[in-house]
Amino acid sequence: MSALDAGFFFAEHPNAPMHLGALAVPQPLVQTVTTNVPGPQFPLYILGRKMLQAHPYVPIGDNVKLSIAALSYLGQLSFDITAESSAARDLDVLAKGIRHGLAELHPKPATTIGTSAPGR
User: Fold this and answer.
1) Are 117 and 93 in contact (CB under 8 A)?
2) Pair 67, 91: CB distance under 8 Å
């Protein structure tokens, strides 16, 4: 479906889901996709076996050279960074920044300092 066809389609079908239009119309200014997906907070099973972890993945293509995804499952949060190597050479800095931001949001418990009562 070309951009012209997509425009005609949406003019004739205004209630069609907008994501169909996003796929059909080139978006040269979009270079990064970031998404978060709340996953199930109850265990999932595959062939009778409990799924222990879930990891997100957002593919890259066309002008999108970097994708960052977050997915929660069973109280855990997983991140994925997918990038074209020529477009993002310092992904380690991005990954460290995500880890640092998460540490700020969920600091480690403070150490309790014991005190003794006077006269003991």
Assistant:
1) no
2) no
